Amino acid sequence: MKEVLDFELMHKLARQYGLDQVLDESAMTELRLLEADKGETICEKGERPERLYFLVQGKLKIFTTLPNGKSLLLRFSTPLALVGDLELVNGREANNTVQSVSRSLLLAISYRAIQNTYVENPKFLYFMLSQVTHKLHTFSNLSSLNMLYPVESRFASYLLSIIEQDAAASEEIQTSKLTELADLLGTSYRHLNRVIQDLCGRDIIRKVRRKIVIENIEELREIAGGNIYE
C-alpha cells in the first residue's frame, strides 16, 4: 500500500466516519491515509499485524485458507470496516486474509500509537465493541450460507456482493479464475460451471469471454434469498 499525502482528505474522511469522536487527540495525529490497489493484500493469514485499519472507501474481501490449501470466502466488507481490531486486543496472528476488491482507501494507525491508551478511552472501546459485535453477527449468518445453502444461492450471493450498490443490471464481473472462485464458494469447478451454464440458460446471466454479465438482477436476488457476503 502507498501513503496518500492529502491531509485535508484524511481529516475529512476521519470526520465523515466519526473517528475524530472516538480517537483521542494524540491518536488522531498518528493517523495515515493509505491506498490499496485492486487485488492488493491488506493482511495475510498467519502474519502479526502492526496496524489497525479503518476502511473508508472501496471494498475488501475476507477469506480463510483451509488445511487442504483451498480458500473459503467469509464475507465482503464496506465502509466503515476495521481490519486488525481482534489482533490488537488478543495480540495473536491474523486468522484470515484480507484483500482489496477494487481501489480502496484506508485510515491506519500503528498498534504502538494506541495500545497503551485505548483501554482508557471508553468511547473507543464502545466503538470497537460495536464493530466486533457486527462481525460476529455477519460471520454467523454467512457460516449458515456456506453450510446450508446450495451452490446456486452462494454464487448469486457472491455476484451481488461484489457489484456496487448502484450497479446496473448489465454490470460486468471478471471470472477468469473459476477454479479459485469455486474454492472460495466451497464447491468444485465442475459443479460451479454447471450452475453458471444453468443461469445462462435461464437468461439470468450471460458469459462474454472471461466475463459474466448480469442480465436479470432481480432474479439473481431471488436466488440469493436475501443473503449476501457482507
Automatic annotation (TrEMBL):
**All copies of domain HTH crp-type, residue ranges:** 149-218
The leader peptide range reads: none
UniProt superkingdom: Bacteria
Pfam families hit by this protein: cNMP_binding (PF00027), HTH_Crp_2 (PF13545)
Q: Does the keyword Transcription apply?
A: yes
Q: What organism does the UniProt record list as the source?
A: Paenibacillus silvae
The alphabetical list of record keywords is: Activator, DNA-binding, Transcription, Transcription regulation
Q: Which PANTHER family match?
A: CRP FAMILY TRANSCRIPTIONAL REGULATORY PROTEIN, REGULATORY PROTEIN YEIL
Q: Where is the Cyclic nucleotide-binding domain?
A: 26-135
InterPro entries named among the record's database cross-references: cNMP-bd_dom, cNMP-bd_dom_sf, Env_Response_Regulators, HTH_CRP, RmlC-like_jellyroll, WH_DNA-bd_sf
- Write down what this protein is called: Catabolite gene activator protein
> Ribosomal protein as a keyword?
no
